[in-house]
């Protein structure tokens, strides 16, 4: 089971902190497997071997527990992406590194990031708003990278970012291990998005010719043959005679 990164709020003794960390990890696994709505406090308590009432000594509520786990997962993902892009300065290189890291996170069998993000839909409205706020904060990483890209004016950067993240975040829906590695798939996705952007940029900068084209007026009739228009006129004259 993947440990959640970050420190719990407030100071706790070593034993209490370890117990709370265990609760967070077990709850994260249950939330990722069953979703927010189908996971109960009693199930979490049973999984860690304690009474449901005793669980509230370590947490405030199911809602606050889920928000904390979700936020920690995104913080851990953000930390990995920041580390991946740190060695790069060129915008395109930074984007490729970010894509590769996020895809690896989403396709990892031990990752809880994607299941938790998908549980946003089933969460209560107040919880959902907190989760969306954190997700938007996480996506700022990609927003800042994409803002530095040399994209043509015809490409909306917000739409570009939304489409790219949608492809990366839903890769687990179609991914099957074996044919390509995570890095190879990420490179394919990145290459497609870069190629489209550069193709659009080339189209914008391509010179446009104002010289009118000389369109052919028709084929020159072979010797001994009358033009089609004249032949049609002769036929019409004969039919009216």
TrEMBL record:
GO molecular-function terms, A-Z: DNA binding
Coiled-coil segments on the chain, per record: none
HTH tetR-type domain: residues covered: 17-77
Organism whose genome encodes this protein: Gluconacetobacter asukensis
One family name in Pfam for this protein: TetR_N
Source taxon at top rank: Bacteria
DNA-binding region: 40-59
Official protein name in the record: TetR/AcrR family transcriptional regulator
Alphabetically ordered keywords of this record: DNA-binding, Transcription, Transcription regulation
Region Disordered, residue ranges: 197-241
């Amino acid at each position: 089971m993947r440990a959640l990164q970050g420190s719990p709020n407030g100071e706790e003794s070593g034993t209490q902190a370890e117990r709370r960390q265990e609760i967070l990890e077990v709850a994260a696994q249950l939330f990722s497997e069953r979703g927010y709505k189908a996971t109960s406090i009693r199930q979490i308590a049973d999984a860690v071997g304690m009474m449901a009432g005793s669980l509230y000594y370590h947490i405030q509520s199911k809602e606050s527990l889920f928000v904390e786990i979700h936020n920690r997962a995104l913080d851990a993902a953000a930390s990995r992406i920041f580390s991946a892009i740190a060695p790069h300065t060129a915008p395109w290189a930074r984007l490729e590194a970010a894509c590769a890291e996020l895809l690896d996170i989403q396709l990892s069998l031990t990752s809880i990031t994607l299941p938790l993000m998908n549980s946003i839909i089933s969460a209560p409205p107040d919880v959902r708003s907190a989760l969306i706020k954190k997700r938007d904060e996480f996506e700022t990483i990609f927003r800042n990278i994409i803002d530095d890209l040399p994209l043509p004016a015809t490409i909306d950067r917000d739409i570009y970012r939304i489409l790219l993240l949608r492809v990366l975040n839903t890769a687990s829906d179609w991914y099957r291990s074996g044919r390509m590695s995570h890095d190879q798939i990420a490179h394919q996705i990145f290459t497609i998005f870069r190629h489209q952007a550069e193709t659009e940029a080339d189209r914008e900068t391509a010179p446009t010719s104002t010289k009118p084209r000389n369109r052919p007026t028709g084929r020159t009739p072979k010797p001994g043959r009358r033009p089609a228009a004249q032949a049609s006129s002769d036929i019409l004259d004969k039919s009216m005679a």
